[in-house]
Amino acid sequence: LALTGAPSNSEIFVFTDAPAKDKNLKNTVVALIEQTKSVVNFMITNVLGIRHQSPTDGSQQQNPLMVRLDGQMYRDLAQASGGQTVEVSKSQLLEAIDILTESTSSSLV
């Protein structure tokens, strides 16, 4: 939706802690990226993925492979637009946003 509402050549930032639920729209999003010439950056926390219950002790664990696969959609879209995907823990999120704000505000005109 940001790609349809933002002016061409926009830099868009997406913050999420969830896997993409509409992977079927990937080609449409890539087409919008190409049409608008916008750059899309993703800030994702490392809680992406499916938690599963350990058969041995009943505790919930995050499957590293699922984290990698779920984040791949975001990495692909960022790459298609010339953007970046930054993966941080929730505890590092505020620090990452501060760095992002500092680096983007210096380039604003």
UniProtKB/TrEMBL annotation:
The keyword Zinc-finger does not apply. It holds the Pfam family VWA_4. Keywords: Secreted, Signal. Residues 1-90 form the Hemicentin-1-like von Willebrand factor A domain. The keyword Secreted applies. Its main location: secreted. This is Hemicentin-1-like von Willebrand factor A domain-containing protein. It comes from Ilyodon furcidens (goldbreast splitfin).
